[in-house]
Amino acid sequence: MIGSLQGSIIIRDDPFLIVDVAGVGYRIHASQDVLSSITEQSSAVKVFTYTHVREDILELYGFSKYSDLKLFESLINVSGVGPKTAIGIFSVGSSDQIKQAIFEGDVSFFTSVPRLGSKNAQKIIIELKNKVGGGELDLTDGTSTARGEVSAALKAFGFTTAEINDAVRSIDGKHKSVEEQVKAALKYLGK
Predict the structure, then answer these.
(1) Secondary structure of the chain in HEC code, one letter for each residue
(2) Beta bridge partners of 11
(3) pTM for the full model?
């Protein structure tokens, strides 16, 4: 298994990259996050990879964050969802958006992915909702969004990931600023 690759990009042919690592070019199915971070062809890149092996094929799937790789692995563990469909889900939204869609039961988010029907979308939601809800797949990854800032503040107060996930989910839409959201989350947590 190849866990990660670091090298320079030889070719970018969306959704693929060919990355030169010590003279060997690896063809990688890249997530949208990786593709959007590339500014020029010869730039250096580090990707966390999933190695997909079948009797007639060996493919690499690359992600800029290890947490994205873990989410990808959770998606392909759902019956009926293969690596190509799972990487397609990452082209529709970020890992935070995917987790939110799972938590909220948003079937339409998943059915917008080619080759993913409503039956498999419902399977994804049912099988992964407990992982998202139980803190196994952390909803608090992003720091650029208000939700991420609230999560970071709660983490600084010493709350666990599960407590933070519950508190962040409890915040309704009427709280506009990050400060108001932190206050609402602390009130929910009883502090």
Answers:
(1) CCCEEEEEEEEEECCEEEEEECCEEEEEEECHHHHHHCCCCCCEEEEEEEEEEECCEEEEEEECCHHHHHHHHHHHCCCCCCHHHHHHHHHHCCHHHHHHHHHHCCHHHHHCCCCCCHHHHHHHHHHHHHHHHCCCCCCCCCCCCHHHHHHHHHHHCCCCHHHHHHHHHHCCCCCCCHHHHHHHHHHHHCC
(2) 18
(3) 0.68
Report pLDDT digits (tens) over 20-51. Answer: 999 999 999 988 878 887 776 668 889 999 99
Report residue 6 as tokens: 């670091």
CATH class of segment(s) 68-133: mainly alpha
**What's the pLDDT tens digit per position in 110-153?**
999 888 898 999 999 999 988 775 555 554 444 335 677 777 78
Kindly indicate whether the domain formed by 4-63 is annotated with CATH number 2.40.50.140.
yes
